[in-house]
Design goal:
alpha+beta; DNA primase, PRIM domain; Helicase, Ruva Protein, domain 3; four-stranded antiparallel sheet; 16 helices; binds zinc ion
Length: 408
């Protein structure tokens, strides 16, 4: 009963949205894209569809009212062929998916919960691989997202944009940034030079951007001896600059415990802490490593840690996949009721919990089973537990989409 009521409620809203708001921006080479949709009713996937124009696509959306809409990052000669071989792949955009789910943030301890389905043991934070009490792997997870994890995803996106710009020489016109409508950001690169790269080449790009196998000694930073030598290295490699910047941060901020965690010996760590001021003073002069008692091995560990912090936490599978379907720009996300929208202005000041909000008029009465405190727009709601409440429609939709409430 409750499920049906929710479904009818969402279907009405989604339908009105697709009928009235003409939400789609231009999709480049639309005729060559494959489209896929998840239905609201059964969440089954319909794919291998193609459209001649944005108009026919919008017409389809307002008739079928899907829960989620996707399009290929690839271009095909026959996008609606049901067999991959017959589609005739022509190339694909380079896309990146940054999801708060893949980024460790302390807020997860506050808003994510898990429960063992066998013994009912439960706790806060990310779910363990197996139940610590009975060893069962049947674990139910309730995950949420908040300003803090969205901010962490944004910081990763900023790092990614720097790679695309500085290391790959891409211009702003070739790179589009989107909020995904849920927990993160999508970055689309449309550039002739990247279009025909195969899966292996895309994996190389993934390794470069995530910093997989980054080796500080290849940059020679731990044994550098002068400012000239440092300058030369930095001019040659953007990665060297990242290692230097993050290395500086580590020296500045890490305490004894952190330094021991990254593999420094007690005595060396203490030497580093006691000489911190001096090291910082000598850092950009290329002479930071001349402090007695902090050896090359220690510097290597520090730069390895710097490499970890420099890499971007992207979903590696998405970028390497040349047949990927990605959420369609401008459409609704069925887990939130928010939209995937382009970040047009400055990413720094972009507030997804404001700008991706779609349903703005009216209120809805819902019964909330349980929800943490959350924000939509400028308002804070909850926490709720088995409560009947009247909420602005966007907040009600979010809870319904997350499976935490039903319409009353
Ligand atoms: Zn258990
Ligand atoms: Zn969070």
């Amino acid at each position: 009963m409750e499920r049906e009521r929710n479904l009818r409620f969402l279907k009405n809203l989604f339908k009105r949205f697709y009928e009235q708001e003409a939400p789609l921006e231009k999709i480049s080479a639309i005729k060559y894209r494959e489209f896929g949709f998840l239905t609201l009713e059964m969440h089954t996937m319909i794919r291998h569809l193609s459209f001649e124009s944005e108009n026919s696509l919008v017409k389809f959306l307002s008739e079928k009212v899907p829960a989620d809409c996707y399009r290929s990052t690839a271009y095909y000669l026959n996008p609606s062929a049901t067999n991959m071989g017959e589609k005739e792949w022509l190339g694909a955009d380079l896309v990146f998916d940054i999801d708060a789910d893949h980024i460790p943030s302390s807020c997860k301890k506050k808003h994510d919960r898990w429960k063992c389905l066998d013994c009912e043991e439960n706790g806060y934070g990310s779910a363990p691989g197996a139940c610590p009490k009975c060893g069962s792997k049947r674990i139910d997870e309730k995950v949420w997202f908040c300003s803090e994890c969205l901010e962490a995803a944004k910081m990763e996106t900023v790092k990614l944009l720097e790679f695309l710009n500085l290391d790959f020489g891409l211009t702003d016109q070739e790179v589009s940034i989107y909020f995904s409508g849920h927990r993160g950001y999508h970055v689309h690169v449309e550039s002739e030079e990247f279009k025909t790269l195969d899966q292996d080449a895309r994996r190389e790009i993934v390794d470069y951007i995530t910093g997989l196998g980054a080796e500080p000694s290849l940059h020679g930073l731990e044994s550098i001896t002068s400012e000239e030598e440092l300058d030369k290295t930095l001019k040659f490699s953007a990665w060297a600059e990242r290692l230097m910047k993050n290395g500086y941060d580590i020296v500045l901020k890490y305490g004894l415990e952190d330094l021991l965690r990254i593999g420094l010996k007690d005595k060396v760590a203490l030497n580093l802490i006691n000489n911190k001021e001096k090291i910082i003073e000598l850092w950009w002069k290329g002479k930071f490593n001349q402090i007695v008692g902090v050896d090359e091995g220690a510097w290597r560990n520090i730069f390895l840690e710097a490499a970890k912090r420099s890499g971007v936490l992207i979903d590696t599978v998405v970028t390497a996949d040349v047949h990927r379907l990605i959420r369609l720009e401008g459409t609704l996300h069925s887990k939130t009721g928010f939209r995937k929208i382009r970040v047009l202005k400055d990413l720094d000041s972009f507030d997804p919990l404001k700008e991706a909000v779609t349903f703005k008029r009216g209120e809805a009465k819902v019964h909330v089973y349980e929800s943490p405190e959350f924000r939509v727009g400028d308002s804070i709601f909850g926490p709720y537990s088995e409560a009947d409440v009247e909420l602005p429609i966007s907040a009600a939709v979010l809870l319904i989409c997350k499976g935490l409430a039903y319409v009353i």
